[in-house]
Amino acid sequence: MQRILITAVIAAGTFLPVIIHAQTDSIALQPVNIKGFVPEKFMSGLKVQRIDSASLLAFQFQNISDLLAIQTPVSFNKYGPGQLTTAFFRGTSSNHTAVLWNGLNINSPTLGQTDFSTIPVAGFDALSIQYGSAASIVGTDAVGGSILLNSAAGNNGFKILLGQQVESFHNHQTQVAARYGSALRNNWRISGKTSLYDNRMNNQFPYRQRREYALLPSEAFQRGLVQDIFLNGKNNQEISAHAWITSNKLTSSPADTAGRELTLTKAYRAMLRYSFGDFTARAAWVRDIIDYAKGNYNQLNHAVTDKFSNRIEKDFDLLLNQNGGNISIKAGAEWTHYRTRVPGYEIPVITENRGDFFLLTRWQANAAFLVSLNLRQALVTGYNPPFTPSLGAEYDLVDLPGYKLKLKSSVARSYRVPTLNERYWKILGDPDIRPESGWNKEAGLEQTVTISPKSTFNASLTAYHNRIKDWTYWNPVKNYRVENLQQVLARGLELQAGWRGNVDVTQVGANLTYAFNKSVQERAYDAYSADVIGKQLRFVPLHTAGLNAFAQYKNTKLTGQLQFAGKRYTTFDNTTFLKEYALLHLIAETSVSIGKVYLRVQGQINNVTNTFYLSVQNNALPGRSFAINLIAAFDSNAKSARRNQD
């Protein structure tokens, strides 16, 4: 077994998803108020995990992959600190995870994926993870699962937060955030959030290699602005405006003027949403910019993609009987226009239109039985994506005061529209590439045990079977020309368990995650590939696990986090692989309030045992490091909030 790393994750009470009020014995977290498109309502039978606000606070200075690698059984491939990070959801590839920001898919239409190193936890207020196919609910890309990021409206008053983290290797992060709200005349209310972050990862390692494996020198600078405004009025009206602007600069081998590589990515995301009663309309615009250059940067490849999206939806609620049986329906349509200019394409400017018609239903037959039937038909220029239905159900097998046991099951069709790169890239692309389609089946049990009034235990076990046809792949045998694999089968088990208890002012708890992901190619993509049939797909670990345990006394907390990833094969015939590794993260934090000012300090040690492990490109990742952060927050309502809680 491996040596274990000790790390520590930081982050401290940010105001973003919640406002923090320190008390003498605990920290009270105000729940967020999420409106707009909340697809979880129609995901009956699917496994959905909501990340609590305390976990978001603990990872406030890190990116989303650091959080999910501990809190979920999702595996990630990282090229290094601040470098490309992609998700492998339930044994699928990096192109099979939909990432939604306030209901809008923000995956790059050219690449078909999201670089999770560019998504900081500071960029959103609420986070949910949906496992398995949800194409009927959220659309394309949700083959292995989807990640749902949402913004939240605030309360009256004014809160401001300043945060700074300093790490080893001359890395540091800075955050400034404010949340505000006020009542207006004529029964209207305005609230908003403004957040800025600046992350600088100079990665000045004191060594160039570990165990004769080189560390890839790099510098990564990230900046972002998040702005949300909510205007709530009489007659259940809401107008909201959202903007998220990011700039990410990555330089590989910066000291090598001949061999260095520059990747500059920018994203401009803007959304305007209006709701009146059960009707909602949304308009959004996203611009993705990718600049790439090598050496002296004289030849800069400049790619720009614009996405214009409009969506309307209407909710209906039908009461069937007096015993509580009811049906909720959401019907709607979405239209999206793409315009892209990429130097590597056969055609200088590409335009494309996509449409979606969907009908989502939720039938609460009685207190114990819940069913969802969802239908979607996508339309794409030059393609005919499959009709995409899904059926899910949940049933309470046991519902007693101290014990609850729920059975969940679903079957769903999935699809993925080929990326623009896959269709239009010179020579290597294929304009006739086929859309992917598949069927995902899963079943699971969830239980909650109330051991005592101050102690609870939760556990879930899920089995899944996901067969995907026409899996798209850049084939190295054919000089990386894109083509469709005939069929891939991903299947496995997921286990999650958590316990929490408290005695007076002391709290303790632990959460465990484990996943077994068997993902193999069922049919060969050419006559010379028969030896890869039945072999595990590249970079998909067979086993992943995580453990998070904490102990808190009043406002002082110690947390340990263990992360394990099994070996990952680097060749199709499974003859070479990257070894398994285990990392342990350690966090110590304490907080204090002085009037309306809240202070929190947090420290961490990364890789105390100096465990050696490799990135996906056979470069060593850094060893032992340290970090410390300080958060100062001012809340104009702090005293009154504390009195209300007392």
Protein architecture, described:
With about 650 residues, the chain is mostly beta strands. The protein is built from five helices and 37 strands. Strand 29 and strand 30 form a beta hairpin. The longest helix has 8 residues, at about 65-70. The model is unreliable at about 1-30 and about 640-645 (pLDDT under 50).
Identify low-pLDDT runs: 1-31, 640-646
Intertermini distance:
49 Å
Number of helices: 5
Computed structural class: mainly beta
The biggest sheet amounts to: 22 strands, antiparallel, barrel
Fraction of residues in helix: under 10%
Shape: globular
Q: Averaged pLDDT, please?
A: 88
> What's the multimeric state?
single chain
Total number of beta strands:
37
Beta-strand residue fraction: over 45%
Rg over CA atoms, rounded to whole Å, is 24 Å
